[in-house]
Amino acid sequence: MSRIQINKTSGTGYSKVIALDGYVSESIDPALKDLIFLRVSQLNGCNYCVDAHAIDLLGDGVAQRKVLAVAAWHHSEFFTPRERVALEFAEALTRMTSAGVPDELWARAADTFGEKELGDLVLAVGLINLWNRVGVAALLQPEAPLEPSTEG
Fold first, then answer.
1. Domain Carboxymuconolactone decarboxylase-like spans what residues (predicted)?
2. What is the CATH number of the domain that holds 88?
């Protein structure tokens, strides 16, 4: 049970966030977006969002082992150089200090993504941080867990 239903209590604001979500979904490769969304959700401890984005990645055709490795991406060989820069950038923006994103990382991200795509990446990371905070504040939970597999 959630504490609040933001879509009902703050419908106008919620619809604006949904519009931004639509823009981000159209402007960034779905699998890359969901990798970023999953990792940021892990960092922020939003169980609902972790579940949703892991399922989205599987639906995008990403291998289960890669989805499971997102939490330890620094130590995994499953991720492309582009994905690694995106994940590092998303982590830096999520854990941002008053110093902001380090210049060296910003330069690598700009070289990797270009100005427009980097701007869209900033919006995507900001968006998932907002969704995570809504999910955590509202105590959102995923659907009841699936029964353990008896196969195998």
1. 24-92
2. 1.20.1290.10
